[in-house]
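Pasting as-is:
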Amino acid sequence: MHGIRLRDYATTTPQPSSIIEGSHSHKQMHFFPLLAVFVGGEIVDLVGQTGPVAKVVLLLLLLFSVISWAIILSKWSLLRRARVQSGRFLRAFRKAQRLQDVATVAEQFKPSPLVAVFNGGFEEYRRQLGNSGGVLQNPTPVQRAMQIAASEELTRFERNLPWLAITGAVTPFVGLFGTVWGIIDAFHGLGTAGAATLRAVAPGISEALITTAAGLAAAIPAVIAYNLIGSSIREFAARGDDFSLEMLNAVERPVQSVEARR
């Protein structure tokens, strides 16, 4: 009796390996739908089923998006390095006793726009000292030279930035054009088929709406980046103006000491 029961238990009890395999296959059944949701397999299928006009629109939006992200990443790297080097350059400038000491180490802070402002003012300062026997006659040309250098640096920061504004303004309408064209095509096919049901028109409309979603996906990051980068550039402009005043104080200090001796 005990042997029979043991045999029956052995034959009816599932083996551990079968339990593991069953749970593994059960997990796989849940894993692949989740993977399809995250990857967007249905969206990929819908894109493959779109018409030629929608495909052209999607390729155009992809081009806008790729160029925009290239500009965003390059500007982010440029502004990050400029911010770090500007802080270091300001500390070195305020610790230096002479402008010549700052000029010898300024090149190592080159990503900073303040370096170009300093170089512009310092070159004009040395030119006046050479022409007037070592005495600064007029600080106004030094100020103008620094303003010109600051303007050139801001122009360098703003280069290619209008593309982000163009992307944010144009791509939603490009996507809307693809959607309108797809809806027209879907209703035209509905009229040709003669089946006026939601099931007949829904696939065409869902395919058409992809272009609107793609347009928004290209526009939203571009608009956000345009505003954030523009804010950072305005911050650098204010820091350049403040540094110009500090530079003028450093330039006029020897003149004031000479006049005090007289």
